[in-house]
Amino acid sequence: MTEKAHVKSTRRISKIWLVPIFVILVGGWMVYTQWRDQGPLITIELKSASGIEVNKTPIKVRDVDVGQVKKIELKPGLDGVLVTARMEASAARLLTDKTQFWVVSPRISFSEVSGLNTLISGSYIAMSANDEGNEERQFVALERPPATPIGTPGLHLTLKSDDRFAYKTGDPIIYKGFKVGEFEESEFNIEERQVYYSAFIEAPYHKLITSNTRFWNASGVKLHLSSSGVEVETGSLETLLANGITFGIPEDSPPGERITGESSFSIYEDEAAAYNTRYKIAAEYVLLIDETVRGLTVGAPVEYRGIEIGEVSRINATDIMEGNILDEDYPIPVVIKIYPGKVRQQDNQESLEFVKQTLRGWVERDLRATLRMGNLLTGGLYIDLHHAKKISQTSMETINGFEVIPTVSNEFTQLTQKADAILDKINQLPLDTLVGDTRAVIEDMQAAANALEETSSDVGLVLEDLDTKALNRNLNQVLTDVSTLLKNYSEGGLSQGEIQETVDAMQETLRNLQPLLLQLNQRPSSLLFPNNNGTDRQPKAKSGERE
């Protein structure tokens, strides 16, 4: 008996299909997770792709990887490259219109040394950390790292200058030897012919910037040769190698209001020029100089009693008076400025009128201007306003709207004029005749001196003869008698009679000398010149010297 098989259809799925289904689900979940977690694609425009490699060059924020370069291609205009990078999702909120990118590579310059760590690890693209602004996916990279990354606490300023040289990005801003900021960007304005700079002052030094702050150049070494002498001015070591500026508040000025927002300042040539800008109003006068102005420079001080009250603004201002320097007796017009602020007045129109009225009264009385030597080494001159003596009163003149302050010559010029007058008189003297007469007088004096010398020799001979022939003989005889007397007396050999005889002999000898001594008292010259009945004795030369 055979049994029939019963075939039944089944709709049950084999368990073996669970494996691929599970794999598909896991793979799909991974793909979804990867798609969900991946960041956006961005495009960065660069000048060149030097040091950039696909799938190797990272994008970093504060040395943390937040993306990677995926593609590099040329721009359609062939003026750069486009870099496509995949960013991480966590960095998506940083991609705004204020985000900046730049390539970090080794850089060596006067102002900085950076990126040396990339010599081993290779270049990378740095990104600023800033979540402000609108969402953005296309960017233009900076040519160099920003001087101050966005978000750095401090103060941004706009500086302008018309100097012959420009400051570069990264040049320092110095305050009392400390670097407190640096230049970020520069732009030249052709119409104004000035350079505008974006600068940044770091915190907490940004609190030093006020409305009265002045900036001036502090680059290199400056040698000033002025009427006050030689001045050498240097900044820090950093400004010796590269350009730089410094700032401060002028003396006798209030600190001013603190600057909290974007502001504009000018960069001046030096500290003096920066501080003088606080004086806005000045009274202008003209000096008509009749002497040389060599050594007088624009900016030379104008002083009153040793205090600087102004400066020279123009020399040989040809628009003030007609004529030129080749005309005879043409005075050189020099324009000076006197600031009310430098004479302890307010910097306003009222003080200006007060200064003008005061100087007008002084000029009508005795105020005069003089060129004086400020320094013998440099030969620099300055203007000295002083009250001259023995000056007649005069009214103040006006030339083309400028009031004229009269001038007088300085002491050196006056001495020179007097010396010239004395030399002219000396030149008019008959010097040849005077020299001949003087020579004759000298010859006569020489002859008289020779005659006197001969007379002195004859006197010496007579004195020698007198000593040996007269006085010596008599004195020796007296001394001999005295010696004999003392000897005999000491030996006891002389009797009283002998002593008496000896004394008598001495008296006789003294009586014989008495006429000679009397004659010497009455006529001392009788021994030299015996009595010749009134005839003068003429001195005679030695026998061997007679012709």
TrEMBL record:
Does the record bear Ligase in its keywords? no
User: What InterPro entries would the database entry show?
Assistant: Mce/MlaD (IPR003399), PqiA-PqiB_transport (IPR051800)
Q: Where in the cell is it found?
A: Cell inner membrane
Mce/MlaD domain mapped to chain residues: 39-128, 292-385
| Predominant location | membrane
* UniProt name for this protein: Intermembrane transport protein PqiB
| UniProt keyword annotations, A-Z | Cell inner membrane, Cell membrane, Membrane, Transmembrane, Transmembrane helix
Q: Does the keyword section mention Cell membrane?
A: yes
- Region: Disordered; residue ranges are 524-547
Instruction: Name any GO cellular component annotation.
Output: plasma membrane
Q: Where are the transmembrane segments?
A: 16-35
Q: List all Basic and acidic residues biased stretches.
A: 537-547
